[in-house]
Design a protein that fits this description.
Order of helices and strands: EHEEEHEHEHEHHEEHHH
CATH topology of the largest domain: Alpha/beta knot
Shape: elongated
CATH superfamily of the largest domain: SPOUT methyltransferase, trefoil knot domain
Strand content: 15-25%
Bound molecules: 6-chloroguanine
Number of domains: 2
């Protein structure tokens, strides 16, 4: 997968050299290119922002540097090509992190993991001039995406989160392929359930024993216990998720929990 990132703070993305994603880059599974938006400015101060039309607090990112950045990374087609709906080459999916976007979910991460090329545009201040998004939509798929109901100072940390969620789903990135299917929110049996507690050695720690069932060797009972714990944790922290289960996802023994 190819990933391009445009930002005024390229230093944030040094984190992509570390751990799982660092290894994925070194082995060629991930091809990441980080670009400094200021490379597409032409004034002495390398200005990327200006005051908002209509007034109000804060600053808005100017359309010109963004337009040139997107043109350079994903060039507009010159000769329209009927076979590809008017474009002669491949285009990335443009992803814009913003608290006013659609929610980022495990399902969206899985869809992004199936794409060959993602382009992340990190806004700062009050956001990017909206015409940049409108114009980009005429030549590539564009998603405005939010991590949740809170406000970050800019898109950089949100993009790191999304790249980690997507990157670990790419074939060959995780050591043990099983570790994806048991995740909270993984499609299948665990869909819309939070994972329950986990334990390792020693068997007793500070007078606290590991639950007996996990030492029993009864795989059926262990699976049942894990599901019960997941249901309990979901009811406690995310009762909103249980309505999904109520629509056909609960068995008779679940209902007893
Ligand atoms: Cl994706 N960006 C910003 N700036 N703030 C956020 C967010 C994204 N998701 C939640 N808050």
């Amino acid at each position: 997968m190819r990933i391009d990132i445009v930002t005024i703070f390229p230093e944030y993305f040094a984190a992509l050299d570390i751990s799982l994603l660092g290894k994925a880059r070194r082995t060629g599974l991930l091809d990441v290119h980080v670009h400094d938006l200021r490379d597409w400015t032409h004034d002495r101060h390398r200005t990327v922002d200006d005051t908002p039309y209509g007034g109000g607090p804060g600053m808005v990112m100017k359309p010109d540097p963004w337009g040139e950045a997107l043109d350079t990374i994903a060039p507009p087609s010159t000769a329209p090509c009927a076979a590809t709906g008017g474009r002669s080459g491949a285009v990335p999916r443009l992803i814009i992190p913003t608290p006013s976007g659609r929610p980022f979910t495990q399902e969206l991460a899985a869809r992004y993991a199936a794409e060959p090329w993602l382009l992340f545009a990190c806004g700062r201040y009050e956001g990017i001039d909206s015409r940049v998004v409108d114009e980009a939509r005429t030549r590539m798929p564009v998603d405005e995406v939010s991590l949740g109901d809170f406000v970050l100072a800019g898109g950089e940390v949100a993009v790191l989160v999304m790249i980690e969620a997507v990157g670990r789903l790419l074939p060959g990135v995780l050591g043990n392929a099983d570790s994806v299917s048991d995740d909270s929110f993984a499609p299948g049996a665990m869909e819309s359930l939070l994972e329950g507690p986990v334990y390792t050695k020693p068997q007793v720690w500070r007078e606290r024993p590991v639950p007996d069932v996990l030492l029993s060797g009864h795989h059926g009972e262990i699976a049942r216990w894990r599901r019960d714990e997941a249901l309990r944790r979901t009811a406690k922290h995310r009762p909103d998720l249980l309505v999904h289960l109520a629509r056909g996802g609960l068995d008779d023994r679940d209902r007893a929990v």
